[in-house]
Amino acid sequence: MEKWPIGVFASIDAGLGVRLDVVRELGVTTVHLHSPHPASRTPDKIAAFKAQLQEYGITITCVFGGFDGESYADIPTVKKTVGLVPPETRAARTKELKEIADFTRQMGVDQVGIHIGFVPHESSDPTYAEILDVTRDICDHCARLNQTLNLETGQEPADVLLRFLSDVDRPNLFVNFDPANMILYGCGEPLPALKKLGAYVRSIHCKDGTWSDQPGETWGAEVPLGEGDVNFKAYLTTLDEIGYTGPLTIEREIAQEPERQKAEIGGAVALLDRLKSELSG
Hints:
- 43% of the residues lie in helices and 17% in strands.
- It has helices at 20-26, 43-56, 75-81, 90-106, 126-144, 158-168, 179-184, 190-197, 232-241, 258-280, and strands spanning 6-11, 30-34, 59-65, 111-114, 148-152, 173-177, 201-206, 208-210, 221-223, 248-250.
- The strands form 2 sheets. The protein has an 8-stranded parallel barrel. It has a two-stranded antiparallel ribbon with strand order 8-9.
- β2 (30-34), α2 (43-56) and β3 (59-65) form a beta-alpha-beta unit.
- α4 (90-106) packs parallel to α5, α8 (190-197) runs parallel beside α9 and α9 packs across α10.
């Protein structure tokens, strides 16, 4: 695979990603796929989906787990509803994430991504040990399938995430780095965080955002690539410094406005192509 192929977050029937026909229109060749609903993870649907991907010339590089009942309405709601941290849904979601990993293997993909939820920042919190155990369980399942588990950044400062990665102590646990999430959640400047986490970065998102006036309490704002507080030339330079050569996967979470979403992703593709050319020249 070429260095830094342009990617985009996509979906079939779930999530905020663009449809595959839009991926093809944009001329993009790699995607992170939001895991489809169970009814779309059957053998016949998988075969049809693989054929469509081959026809369109699209490669999935990571499948992201997502669950019914998750909401990103505001930071308190994320804490209550997202990932494997909420105790009420943890067992069912752990089971489903293993099924998503199985689907990912059947699709021939070796990376599973997940917003694990808000890991407690203090290891003395009783929930912390519970999340260690469930993460180890998922990692062990993925390891049997020759997969990595990539945790999305954003909910924790880099130092907290580093300690969690070390405490889980599994060789197939890595990071999907999203620079905008560090800003949107108010968890730290993205470029220093990327440098700290560099050894763990196996996949990334290209998304932009602006800081909230109450970081960590209220959302920042997601904005088109190049219009926020992520310096993308410096971002790519830092990715180069840490040795990351994988896809630059654009994420623009405005699926309710599909034409605007497509146009802004198209602008992001052009920006990343220009920056790649500048940095390679």
